[in-house]
Amino acid sequence: MTIDVFRYRLPLISPVALRHGMLTERTGFVVRLEEDGLEGWGEAAPLDGFSRESPQEAHEALRKISLSEDLSSEALERVPSSARFALESAVLDLQAQRQGMSMAEVLNPTSVALIHLNALITTVGDEAVEEAMEYVRCGFQAIKMKVGRAGLKSDIQSVNAILDLLPDAVELRLDANQAWSFEDALEFANRVDVTRLAYVEEPLAQPERLLELAGKTGVRVALDESLVGSEPSGLEDQLFAEAIILKPSIAGGLDWAVHMAKRANELGIVPIVSNAFECGVGLRTHVALAAAWAPAPCGLSTYARFAEGLYSERLPMNGPSINVVEVLAPRTPDLDKLELIP
Q: Is the pLDDT of residue 123 over 90?
């Protein structure tokens, strides 16, 4: 068995606003696990402001594993989430090829063959409204909008304008990334028909008050940042949550996400797979996870933001739905787009 680590750099079609600045390109690492003539691939791409580890820390963890060739669960528990996700993905990819199955089928033999995406809006004002209506015309069943960046008044106006035009069959999900104070969240709930929102993801800078917010306003909440470092058993204390957002490369790795999704399903909480702007290598693992255990519309439409991918042909992921079989067919990245690093 050999483990190689590569670096990549990919441009985005246009800058994406994140809470700590503008993302104009994506850099990260992919790992290649070779054994018995087969190759398994995975991606580690820490995202500034969201991941707990730096790119340097992820690279160092991957380098140590590549030298030791120790992929035991004990060894993987000691590496940061992005590196763990990459290594677990490569192992899953290899296992699927050995068994003649898709990665989704390895995770769950009853996985679904079609999953839907939620569209992502990061703009504000009239531009956000126009973008939402274009996504409706394209057939998206769910739209996720970032709030908490342009000011509360702007958020209220934009959300109300979208709700006035949005068909009832299309979900509107909001993501505040813990930007609001409790008072701001109350004002928002008083001025927006929150019963028409699928949920508000991490609305509070004080997440310990989420239960109180839900009780006072009736707003449905989803957990994301609050899940980092948590265990599936902890969901029993979060039964007020409508949904949990699973970002395995940030919060704990692939195996962690599988166990979280299974427990959420048992408790009646909706698990939703999302990503940290990984490119196609990492997104294939996200697709497998969603098809296996979290088939609700997922947050993987970020692939459309890449000007190019690491494969010779782009993954078929730009529409409102994904054919799981097509996306998970065995693929090898274009080595000309990768830099082998020690």
A: no
Tell me the torsion sign for CA atoms 286, 287, 293, 296.
Answer: positive
Give me the residue spans of the domains in the chain: 2-100+333-341, 107-327
pLDDT exceeds 90 at position 326: yes
| Residues 2-100+333-341, CATH architecture | 2-Layer Sandwich (3.30)
In tens, the pLDDT along 200-235 reads: 999 999 999 999 999 999 999 999 999 988 999 999
Tell me whether residue 233 is exposed, middle or buried, using C-beta atoms within 10 angstroms of its C-beta: 0 to 12, 13 to 18, 19 or more: exposed
Please provide the size of the chain in residues.
342
The domain defined by 107-327 folds into: TIM Barrel (3.20.20)
In what helix (H) or strand (E) does residue 107 lie, and over which residues does it extend? helix 103-107
The Cα 248–Cα 245 span in angstroms is 9
Task: Please provide the average confidence, as pLDDT, over all residues in the chain.
Answer: 95
pLDDT of residue 191: 98
Beta strands 171-175 and 142-146 are parallel
- Tell whether the model's pLDDT for residue 133 goes beyond 80: yes
Q: Give the per-residue pLDDT at 22.
A: 84
Within 8 A by CB and 6+ apart from 199, the residues are 173, 174, 219, 220, 221, 222, 242, 243
